[in-house]
Amino acid sequence: RREPLALINLKKKNEETGEEELASRLGHYKAKATRHIFLIRHSQYNLDGRADKDRTLTPLGREQAELTGHRLASLGLKFDQIIHSSMTRATETTEIISKHLPGVKKISTDLLREGAPIEPDPPVSHWKPEAVQYYEDGARIEAAFRNFIHRADAKQEEDSYEIFVCHANVIRYIVCRALQFPPEGWLRMSLNNGSITHLVIRPNGRVALRTLGDTGFMPPDKITRT
């Protein structure tokens, strides 16, 4: 729903000529800026926690978040905002990263919480959630994709750089959807903790994947995928 032609009421005609003023009107709806989306997977966390509030970052996870924050700051970009999942591990990762990016506003959302986006193809034996979970989580994660991953608004004049701190399942699904790949293939990708995935959305709606799950800035002994 970002294609300029879809935003124009084609029934409205020029009163004098009876012809649609498409050329002049399309200019008001065309995006001018490029959006850079940085999808960050949360750092390593306590897998033994029964409730979300108990699944806090491990000491290594905190180190990973520091390394990710330092890496993002070193890029020298003017980040517009950090949108993060409301789950504890994503919130804590965000707090650490944000220390390296002073002044960048933080926004929490339930849409980016971890879940089961769509039944994977081929299926895997080690992870089989109940079918109802795909319906509940899938609709929410698809809503997150539609809400956050789109071309820039026509009013946006300059390129933007946004950070999203969330979860592996969410990021993998978003990447498949953004690149117009079959979303059922999301589980074929693997993402390290604290990794950076960089999507670029051009004004014409074309999407490019610059990096997927990058942790080249971390020492090998700090890399995990739990």
From TrEMBL:
It is found in: Mitochondrion outer membrane. It is an enzyme of class 3 (hydrolase). It catalyses: O-phospho-L-seryl-[protein] + H2O = L-seryl-[protein] + phosphate; O-phospho-L-threonyl-[protein] + H2O = L-threonyl-[protein] + phosphate. Its EC number is 3.1.3.16. Keywords: Hydrolase, Membrane, Mitochondrion, Mitochondrion outer membrane, Necrosis. The keyword tRNA processing does not apply. The keyword Lipoprotein does not apply. Pfam families: His_Phos_1. GO terms for biological process: positive regulation of mitochondrial fission; programmed cell death. One of its GO terms (molecular function) is protein serine/threonine phosphatase activity. GO terms for cellular component: mitochondrial outer membrane. Belongs to the phosphoglycerate mutase family. BPG-dependent PGAM subfamily. This is Serine/threonine-protein phosphatase PGAM5, mitochondrial. The gene is Pgam5.
